[in-house]
Amino acid sequence: TSDPAKKKQLQKFMDSEFIRITDPYVPFDEAGMYARPGRLRNSALTASVLGSGYVIYEAPYARRLYYADTYNFQGAPQRGAYWADRAMQEGGRLKLTREVQAFIDKRGKK
Hints:
Layout: H1 4-22, H2 39-47, H3 62-66, H4 83-108
Helix pairs in contact: 1-4
């Protein structure tokens, strides 16, 4: 589509679907040992501008956890380092592609 508003809607949808698909892979303090157990996971929604094409995980330790494959994460082996890459490699890319196509098909029928 060449309509900028529709492109923006599509990008917002893609960004939010990416967050949804990667969510189960993001490290999370399931035991409630820390003051803000969902800070890293929730930061994808608070730090990202949906529609920008960039999903940002913003926490002081985000980079360290993303590249830290030596940590013993709660919820492992699914939750852990390289969460976005692993989510996409383990069926997320196909899921995202299907969801985006369904979104486009649905919008085209309106």
